[in-house]
Design goal:
mainly alpha; two-stranded antiparallel sheet; 59% helix; 11% strand
Length: 205
């Protein structure tokens, strides 16, 4: 079953958190947010978390541990990691860390159709993106300098933020280069170029 299970960042996060012991779904969501892992794992919708937990349980990667009852809260089911789930988490980590994968992000897809816009419109939009990237870089710098109870956090606790900062900084530098090329006219295009590309593609079909 694990060979056909479609992994996801959220599924990996659930297995990773359950390494430390049983948790209920609310506790999983709260820990992901408290530790800042919601920058790389989407837990905005609790329904998505519950669907992921159900899939993991169906695949035998986690199992019901117990049901907590408290007059102050609704009944809560806790989940524990199975041996199969522990092995799957390590297999996923090995595959993800060792092998780059094309995840088809939106930004490169939009770049591939720049001739749909004018160079001026593209320049205006990329200026907006540049401003947002700069703000994001400042936020990541603040996070990397954060402390817990007066002590600097160990590097491993913020390693994903360190990666995100490096990626953001690289993208910011690239966008600056494109904006400079648009400004001096060394990078430009017109709608006819897109029409020629489409026509050539039609001829080859």
């Amino acid at each position: 079953m694990t060979s056909t299970f479609r992994r996801s960042p959220l599924a990996l996060a659930v297995l990773g958190l359950l390494e430390a012991g049983p948790l209920h779904p609310y506790g999983i969501q709260r820990l992901i947010k408290q530790w800042g892992k919601d920058q790389v794992v989407n837990v905005g919708q609790r329904a998505g978390l519950y669907r992921t937990i159900a899939r993991l349980e169906d695949a035998g990667l986690i199992a019901v541990g117990s049901t907590e009852r408290d007059e102050r809260y609704p009944e809560r089911t806790t989940y524990r990691l199975t041996d199969t789930g522990r092995a799957a988490a390590r297999q996923w980590m090995a595959e993800i860390l060792s092998t780059p994968r094309n995840e088809y992000p939106e930004f490169p897809a939009a770049l591939s159709f720049l001739p749909v816009l004018t160079p001026r419109a593209t320049q205006d939009l990329l200026h907006q993106r540049r401003d947002r990237l700069a703000r994001r870089l400042t936020e990541l710098d603040a996070e990397l300098a954060s402390e817990a109870e007066g002590h600097a956090l160990p590097r491993v606790a913020l390693i994903e933020s360190e990666y995100l900062r490096a990626v953001t900084q690289a993208e910011l530098a690239w966008v600056d280069g494109i904006l400079a090329a648009l400004d001096d006219g060394s990078f430009t295009w017109n709608r006819e170029e897109l029409d020629r590309i489409v026509a050539a593609a039609r001829d080859n079909t």
